[in-house]
Specification:
homodimer; 213 residues; Rossmann fold; 2 domains; DNA-binding; transcription (chains A, B); cytoplasm (chains A, B)
Chain lengths: 213, 213
DNA sequence: TAGATTGTTAATCGATTAACAATC
DNA sequence: TAGATTGTTAATCGATTAACAATC
């Protein structure tokens, strides 16, 4: 069976398509051409058609794309039709902020548990979920069908915790710790390195002022 | 005066170089070759040399790169030797989490003010900074040499607030609102779309399981 | 049917990797 | 000097854009 590998460049654009299509759908727009979407999103119509055609012919010549069905298809491609249970490890400010964010639930991401090494935080409640001590992490992962672990702990403990997660069958790690994790093939890691992001911003601020006369 | 434009692909890798070099420096490593760094970071030595040479010849044939000075140079390129004042707009969970994060200060990013439209949050203290009402935002930006605004507000108000920021001389927006901002050329926007990031993770989880036999 | 717009192939552009002469 | 490793040019690879035949 032939497996055409989709590049991460394409994958990275799918959530943005999904967002625009969702908004169009909510506005009651029924159909859209790659040309119109191009104007809205400021990417080329050609790229839009190439991107969609990686996954099959969702459009119709002379008509364009049906917003509702394209929205649903992209959601399916992104796996948003499936439920993904997640736990948050690290009940600090960032971890609690993510736990309190309701919108993930709407996309099928279900907040199941929260863990922290600090005994003072254990027992606290974040949106109905009690913070558990770290020694319950491994059994909890195994017994509660947890797909995704959100790592909001200092980098000093992140590598060690990631190894435990992998050993207990986690499928993906959403890593907010400022360190590169080394996981076996097949385990997905998505890094959110906030300070890297801020540094890019800083570069571009300074580049711009020196470019200007 | 010739301006060689550095691609965002290169810029995006600089913070990671910076991080590895900082760790090497802390470990007391004095010099490193592109070959060694390649092994550590899992990118090609060729790419490392190309990347660095966009900014000048930091190395020495037969020796490699001096860790300390390369670290400092990259820091300078990223503008980390300059102070950047920032405000956070939106004192919800995420805004407060970012305000409480101390490590930005170490890199020259100084937390100067915080704003929220909700009167119940006004007056609250986040790491020594009092939450101010939105009607003080514009004068505060102008009078306190604010470079960067961190947007942690709902997307419904983000576009409007961004326009105000631009009108009052902001130079960069670190945008956590799930919407695309339209700003004039020269204003930098760095988006952190957390739900997009989570969707990518979701895609890769599902891709992997269907690829596997 | 005529017009519109896709799906897809071909051309272009840019980024990554390889190779090697320069040089410490 | 000989060996090591950069800086840089050339080759390759992959992603984006353009073009157009297929088709609704």
């Amino acid at each position: 069976m032939e497996v055409k590998e989709i590049s991460q460049a394409v994958i990275g654009r799918l959530p943005r398509y999904f967002r625009y299509l969702g908004e169009l759908k909510d506005e009651g727009v029924e159909r859209i051409s790659s040309q119109e979407l191009s104007g809205l999103m400021k990417v080329t119509a050609s790229q839009i058609r190439q991107d969609f055609n990686n996954f099959g012919g969702f459009g119709q010549q002379g008509y364009g794309y049906n917003v509702e069905s394209l929205y649903r298809e992209i959601g399916k491609i992104l796996g948003l039709d499936k439920q993904h249970n997640f736990v948050i490890i690290g009940a600090g400010n960032l971890g609690r902020a993510l736990g309190n964010y309701m919108n993930f639930e709407r996309r099928g991401f279900i907040f199941k548990g929260m863990f922290d090494a600090n005994p003072e935080l254990v027992g606290k409640d974040v949106r109905g979920v009690k913070v558990m001590p770290m020694d319950q992490l491994e059994s909890f992962i195994r017994e509660n069908d947890i797909d995704i672990a959100v790592l909001t702990i200092p980098k000093t403990s992140a590598v060690e915790v990631a190894d435990k997660l992998v050993a207990n069958g986690i499928r993906a790690i959403w890593n907010f710790a400022h360190v590169d994790l080394n996981v076996p093939e097949g385990i997905q890691v998505e890094n959110v390195h906030l300070s890297d992001s801020l540094m890019k911003l800083s570069y571009n601020i300074n580049r711009y002022s020196s470019d200007m006369k």
